[in-house]
Automatic annotation (TrEMBL):
GO terms for molecular function: ammonium channel activity. It is a multi-pass membrane protein. Residues 23-197 form the Ammonium transporter AmtB-like domain. Belongs to the ammonia transporter channel (TC 1.A.11.2) family. GO terms for cellular component: plasma membrane. Pfam families: Ammonium_transp. It comes from Heracleum sosnowskyi. This is Ammonium transporter.
Length: 202
């Protein structure tokens, strides 16, 4: 019995890919993205005084957009790429390569393109959660500098250490299915620290 033409493997749908796994990863990524923009963006705009509404909403929108650029430029490889040190991968722009994006991801039966998108959503929401601690307290230009720096020198370290199979905490058996450490704990500590620092400075 032959498969229908839409189920026959081809370049866009290789034999190793599970369409159900791929569809679910893309669905999950979309739901996380909707929590971020417009979800948190609208929430933050409604939490602050009228004079801070635009600034607060754009802090979330900018973080989402800036993380996307940094993530495909070097962030994904620092979080999931080749080992540089025990807690960080080598920064590389290979994420933009078509061959890399169509290859099987290091985990699961879906392509790297899906994994890059899925992990980008988590990186983005982490920065947007930090923004919640700085609403009405931080200059937008300072936030524009903070986002790529924190993603590069903090988030990628946590993601590589725990989520990447080569990370030192992953090798010790640390498991973080829901982002409790990589996302929520790191965002909470960073937000608290940043809010304290900004408050002291003012």
């Amino acid at each position: 019995m032959e498969f229908p033409s839409n189920l026959i493997p081809d370049e866009a749908s290789p034999e190793w890919m599970n369409k159900g796994d791929n569809a679910w990863q893309l669905t999950a990524a979309t739901l996380v993205g909707l929590q971020t923009v417009p979800g948190l963006m609208l929430l933050y705009g409604g939490m602050v005084k009228k004079k801070w509404v635009i600034n607060s909403a754009f802090m979330a929108l900018y973080a989402f957009a800036a993380v996307m650029v940094c993530w495909v430029g070097w962030g994904f490889q620092m979080a999931f790429g080749e080992n540089l040190v025990e807690f960080l991968g080598k920064p590389d722009h290979v994420t933009l390569d078509q061959k890399f994006l169509l290859d099987q991801a290091f985990l699961g039966y879906f392509p790297n393109a899906t994994m890059v998108l899925f992990q980008f959503m988590f990186a983005a929401i982490t920065l947007v959660l930090i923004a919640g601690a700085l609403l009405g307290r931080m200059n937008f230009i300072a936030w524009m500098l903070f986002v790529p720096l924190w993603l590069t020198f903090s988030y990628t370290i946590g993601a590589y250490s725990i989520w990447c199979p080569d990370g030192w905490l992953a090798k010790l058996g640390v498991i973080d299915f829901a982002g409790g450490y990589v996302i929520h704990l790191s965002a909470g500590v960073a937000g608290f620290t940043a809010a304290c620092w900004v408050t002291i400075q003012t």
